[in-house]
Amino acid sequence: MNVSSPTDGPDDDAYWQRPEPGAASLGRPPEDQPTAPEPPPYPGPPRTDPPAPHWRPPTIATPPPPRHMPAQDMDAIDEAEGSARTVTYGVGLVAGAIAIVLICLLCGRALL
Hints:
Keywords: Membrane, Transmembrane, Transmembrane helix. The chain is mostly helical. Helix content is about 35%, strand content about 0%.
C-alpha cells in the first residue's frame, strides 16, 4: 500500500477523496491459519530431588552468657590522664616559646 501522495497528476486532492460506492472493497487480507507451535529447543533444567528432612546443621538454642569485663583501676586511669595532660601542655609551651623567639628575630631583622 502506498501511503505517500502521488505526484503525477494535477488534482492533488484525488488521493484523499472517499472511494466510489460501487468500487471494490478494500477489506482485510485473508489471515493465515496459525500453525501448531514448535516445542522449545531447551525444555529447562531437570527437576531436583527434595532435600533430606534433617539437612540443616544443628543449632544451639541458648548461647552462653557474656563474660565479665576485667575491673578498671580508676585511680591509675586518672593519674595517667593527668600526666598526659602535663606532657601536652609542656610541649605546647615549648613550641609557643620557640615561635615567639622566631617571630621576634624575623621582625627585628626586617626593621634593620
